[in-house]
Amino acid sequence: MGIFNSKNWNGEVFLKYLETVPKVKTNAFIKAGIFRTRGDLKARLVDQVGGNYITEPIVGRIGGDALNYDGSTNITSSGLDTYTRGMVVAGRAKAWKEYDFTADITGKNFMEEIAKQVSDYWDDVNNTTVLNILKGIFAIARFANNTYDITSAGTTTVSATSLNNAIQKAAGENKNQFKLVIMHSQVATNLENQKLLDYWKYTDADGVERNSELASWNGRTVIIDDSLVERTETTAGVYQASITTKATAGDKIKINNVELIAGIDFSLSTDSTTGNAAAIAAALNESTDASVNKFTWSNSSGTLIATEDSGYYGLTGGFTVTVTKTSGGTLVVGTVSNTTPAVAGDVYSTYILGTDAFDYCDCGAKIASEVWRDPKASGGYDELITRQRKLYAPKGFSFINTALTSPTDSQFATSTNWDLAVSSGGVYYPTKAIPIARIKSTG
Is 195 exposed, middle or buried (0-12, 13-18, 19+ CB in 10 A)? Predict the structure, then answer.
């Protein structure tokens, strides 16, 4: 049957089908032992306020100096440190459309391709959430010792000694617990040029041996992710385009990779160029597509404005606009203009993770996937809607903003939402016991 046949839809079958598609990044985390799966947390969510936040005690280790046993010194006792951490669930949702007319023209059943793309999409979403959590906790001053910064050293790019020095600085004698490294392709290229990076091999269906997406550095699994660039930021790029003639229902506007249909994806309830720009901006701000979610979108008197978010200054290249009118359509959008961002040099963060670096729980959604049909709009279309709720809790850290029902990636990346777990006596969780480290380099 077709994937968008709502009469015969079976969400459980679809989700099982998705699980047969390889998730490269997620599987790398799991196989390296970085995620400690906590199925017990799902049940505990029901018992706590809001069903999205868990407060959990962490049992520390006994310590203190040994006393002299000499027949006259009194023996005194000390307690066991217990820390408290807060953990929060991240809820995410996304939907995709398929139009009847497209199927009529192509005659193609999209089930396998959609399943593969949905699985890969959520793999990227989850990976991005973890990376933003890492950005947030590394911005905490109390965690500074776990960063090995060579950006001001004589040699500012990674070398044969960088990894070993970083994990020793972070964990001392416990450095062998580190298993996984996440790096930018520029860092990977530098390591390749020094013959320090080895790509895993696999044999394809034709019997040809090829490099996989995963590599190793000093025995640690490597994931390459180009979102790991930081900038010395001074000015955000601001890009804008005026809507000079308002849209008619059915007109299509494509911003980078995101296509929006007037009357479906953005409202025409305020039928004016200003109303169009405001509605398009609102739709783009809700999108998780990487080509538009690096901006904050807004409207000014019918002008659509994209302002680069912190962390992406100078990286976006602005935006492009393509308009497709229906018969009798009226939407006209002017040329995109921009304010060029002022950006200093690149700095790359390479993250190094160890065993049980994160507690992880797939908390589930009431309806994880479903289909919905509109038989009239644009000749009819089916929509696949997916949802997930997952918990990622870095070891030794507490998410302290209890007011957030589901933090966005930006909120995960905000340092003031995090702190080290702390005991009732004000003692913070020891950073050397946290298997998370970072190298900052210029390449």
Answer: exposed
The pLDDT value given to residue 109: 55
pLDDT at residue 49 in the model: 46
* Cβ–Cβ < 8 Å for 379, 401: no
pLDDT for position 3: 47
3-state SS assignment for residue 317: coil
Note the pLDDT of residue 74.
Answer: 78
Among 308, 304, 297, 313, which Cα is nearest to 336's?
A: 304
Burial class for 198, CB neighbours closer than 10 Å (0-12, 13-18, 19+): middle
Angle at 112 between CA 127 and CA 20, to 5 degrees: 55
- 426 to 127, 295, 423: CA distances (angstroms): 33, 39, 5
Token representation of residue 270: 């305020």
Distance from C-alpha of 335 to C-alpha of 338, rounded to nearest angstrom: 10
Local structure of residue 266 (DSSP, 8 states): B
**Number of other CB atoms surrounding residue 342 within 10 Å:** 13
In angstroms, what is the C-alpha Rg of the chain? 25
Q: What is the reported pLDDT for 123?
A: 79
Beta strands in 67-121 (DSSP E): 82-99
Encode 70-106: b = buried (16+ Cβ within 10 Å), e = exposed: eeeeeeeeeeebebebbbbbbebebeebbeeeebeee
Query: Within its chain, how far is the Cα of 245 from the centroid?
Result: 37
Q: Are 23 and 119 in contact (CB under 8 A)?
A: yes
Of 392, 391, 386, 393, the closest CA to residue 366 belongs to: 386
Segments of the chain with pLDDT less than 50: 1-7, 47-50
194 CB-near residues (< 8 Å, 6+ apart): 159, 160
Question: What is the token pair recorded at 115?
Answer: 């399943």
